Amino acid sequence: MTDLFLDTAIKAARAAGDVLIEGRKSDIKVDQQMRRDVKLEMDRKAEAAIVGVLQGVFPDHDILAEESGLKGVDAEYQWVIDPLDGTYNFFRGIPIWCSSIGLRHNGEEVLGVIFDPCQNEMFYAQKGEGAYLNGRPINVSNIATLAESTVAVAYGPCELFLERMRAGVNNVFMECDKVRGLGAAALHLAYVACGRFDAFFEYGIWPWDVVAGNVMIREAGGEVSMLIREDGMVEICASNGRIHDELMPLIEWE
Ligand code: IPD
Fold first, then answer.
1. Does the C-beta of 209 come closer than 6 Å to ligand 1?
2. What is the DSSP string of the chain?
3. Can you give the pTM of this predicted structure?
4. Ligand 1 centre and the CA of 85: distance in Å?
5. Is 6's C-beta closer than 6 angstroms to any atom of ligand 1?
6. For each successive 10 residues of the chain (254 residues), what is the average pLDDT?
7. I need a surface site. Which of 71, 117, 169, 170 has the fewest CB within 10 A?
């Protein structure tokens, strides 16, 4: 792949970061508040910034974005965008959120950029070219047993998955070293890729939460199990690979 894909995705992520950092200084406008979820004006503004940069360079590519949905269905390339992952954290003033930009080529996940402007951490990866954090190569952890592992989890907003998640988290909690939840799926994946966490699982999330992170995990030497349901929702378990077989039977994977 040419550097133009990566450079443009990084530029788009930085553009969203600027919008979001500036936006958190003023009153946060709520578009929609639901049970366990919230949609903000800032989600839309950050998405417009990302889409503007990407479309300026790649006007013929398709886009699947959290706020505006699907634009185009037949291009070779499709950008998959979560402009503000961790919206609820942003809303509550918790500085743990990011933008996530993935790219699929004929359906295959080939590039990922995850930018956390609060920490100034730019994670990126391209298929076959390794994974990086602020220019330095990253790798998954070497932890080989669940008993030594830190596992990231999340309870997404969708009722359908709450019981399974609760059971899975309980099982894992009893066997692992630590359970953590940051409230931003893309950051969970980036943190597995760079070895801060050893695994992450969640049910009932969306492609825009995971495409970028999946590329990162694979390029950092980890393993991803993913199911895309008929309704488009995703079930994911990503790990350093070494603990994957021990983890899967515990997490109520279907
Ligand atoms: C959400 C976050 C959260 C996860 C939800 C996602 P959003 O994304 O990643 O951690 O539990 O399933 O939908 O709405 O903040 O972009």
1. yes
2. --HHHHHHHHHHHHHHHHHHHHHTTSPPPEEEEETTEEEEHHHHHHHHHHHHHHHHH-TTSEEEETTTEEE-S--SEEEEEEEEETHHHHHHT-S--EEEEEEEETTEEEEEEEEETTTTEEEEEETTS-EEETTEE-------SGGG-EEEE---S-GGGHHHHHHHHHHHHHHSSEEE--S-HHHHHHHHHTTS-SEEEEEEE-HHHHHHHHHHHHHTT-EEEEEE-TTS-EEEEEE-STTHHHHGGGTT--
3. 0.96
4. 6
5. no
6. 92 98 90 86 96 98 95 95 97 97 98 98 98 98 98 90 94 98 98 98 96 98 96 96 97 87
7. 170
